[in-house]
Hints:
A: 6-stranded mixed β-sheet; 9 helices; 10 strands
Amino acid sequence: xxxxxxxxxxxxxxxxxxxxxxxxxxxxxxxxxxxxxxxxxxxxxxxxxxxxxxxxxxxxxxxxxxxxxxxxxxxxxxxxxxxxxxxxxxxxxxxxxxxxxxxxxxxxxxxxxxxxxxxxxxxxxxxxxxxxxxxxxxxxxxxxxxxxxxxxxxxxxxxxxxxxxxxxxxxxxxxxxxxxxxxxxxxxxxxxxxxxxxxxxxxxxxxxxxxxxxxxxxxxxxxx
Amino acid sequence: xxxxxxxxxxxxxxxxxxxxxxxxxxxxxxxxxxxxxxxxxxxxxxxxxxxxxxxxxxxxxxxxxxxxxxxxxxxxxxxxxxxxxxxxxxxxxxxxxxxxxxxxxxxxxxxxxxxxxxxxxxxxxxxxxxxxxxxxxxxxxxxxxxxxxxxxxxxxxxxxxxxxxxxxxxxxxxxxxxxxxxxxxxxxxxxxxxxxxxxxxxxxxxxxxxxxxxxxxxxxxxxxxxxxxxxxxxxxxxxxxxxxxxxxxxxxxxxxxxxxxxxxxxxxxxxxxxxxxxxxxxxxxxxxxxxxxxxxxxxxxxxxxxxxxxxxxxxxxxxxxxxxxxxxxxxxxxxxxxxxxxxxxxxxxxxxxxxxxxxxxxxxxxxxxxxxxxxxxxxxxxxxxxxxxxxxxxxxxxxxxxxxxxxxxxxxxxxxxxxxxxxxxxxxxxxxxxxxxxxxxxxxxxxxxxxxxxxxxxxxxxxxxxxxxxxxxxxxxxxxxxxxxxx
Lengths: 224, 487
């Protein structure tokens, strides 16, 4: 059963007086336990698609459903808080907090029922993702790019949601680091039954996903 | 890691920005605290002095206005006496605790010795300026205990007040001052005789005099002018208090109203008989109503609401008017400090708002992260406000102490400089009125202190200013779009 689904999702971009169609009646569904990639050229609307299914923006027409429920009904803010997690290309961590504290922030914001002793869970998550406890206590700007992205992944996992959306998560990383991150995503999908949706322009990552969609001229088509 | 902990970490870890904001609020807080401290102190002085002055209000003929408008306004002959009905109507107002209406008259005496302030004039005090005879002042009252005694401007030191029978029958009994008693060797139980003389001023600078009526009055009590004594004690060293030139309070004799009434009638008849060619005016009775107000603060409202009820040529005087006349420097200081508070609050609003907007713009990504994680906008607001309060309140607590010291220094410097020197009718008051306080007394009473009202006023003003300063940054946060920031 689809955990996330779009129905006739359309989006126009207003560029001065011109109205440019970015997505045209997109119908697509995603399931738990799978690693999806969205491919497309720069400016094709990949990030816009991600912003719509993450409720950072609203479609001009059509709807997005989470477990059969319109996310508008759930509430965009609540949907972001409790149903999905986001990973960004530039990590977007709070600079004056440590790695551990960045993870704790998302746990505190979420309404999802999480076990007590948040600190221990956060340390364990960071350790699982490859951040030692010593590094976990460092301010994030004292960590490398790859380590910061790992912290961002740990933060995404901390709220125990089923869907993780990532926008070019390896865009700022070297190849070796890129593969490590992709491996984490694959594990999360297969071992932890998460639905991972990654927007990327890298065909190398796409090849390793369970399903790839290609976005061109506002249409999203399955890539065989 | 809720918004409160985030706020705390933000304040403690971004030390540079916190320090800048702290310094700005500390400086502005000092100005506001100083101004509030001065303002509160001036208000306290006003309250304290007005309490000392009492809450007595009287309705009197406005001689100053009559003189000023002698061409166009009401003339003395046209002034109608106040009716007893009007006095009663005013006396029943909610601000009035108790009231009386006094029948007053002056009896020129020949051998009876009124008290005179200047000892060297003791032998000559029967004739002062321009051949004016010495006189005593009879003050009739409807009450058993005149209001002046209630107000503690005078205190009974010997004897008693009037009894019901004396009031009802209008018996000629009186209360006299210690000074008058001493001057004439009188004690309670004695009967003094006011040996009146009729004086006709119509002949000009050298008035004509004739032997008048004798008025025997039994002394039932002796009083002391306490308010004059207090004023004298509080006077600045080396200065002669202005009341000292006025002998009237010492030569006042309190009597039942009807007793004064009969004396007035006898006096008028005798005077007319002694000088048949002179017209001494109508037989109309002029009363001086006295109203004890519930509290000195009621005086302004009482004056405003009673003045329109009065016939032409009258005005309301309150004992607290003395403060308004003499306390010019304090009023100016109060005014200046009020302006400083308003200006400093407005400046603080603008400056703090701008600083926070600038800081918030710098934190756009951080706030975008919280919003993209689904944080409720109200908690993002709360974090920013809490950070501001953490810094602001700590700066304000320091300002509470330093601002008070600043206010003390500035006000002392202003009071001792010529900046606030009163533009008062100084010399005029020395001779005309009988002010119970002077500027030195008021300045002496001025103290910049830590009072609960100062602390509350400053903290309330400061916190409201800080919260209002957060409005513009909050509008900025409200407009933040996490998609535009994060993607």
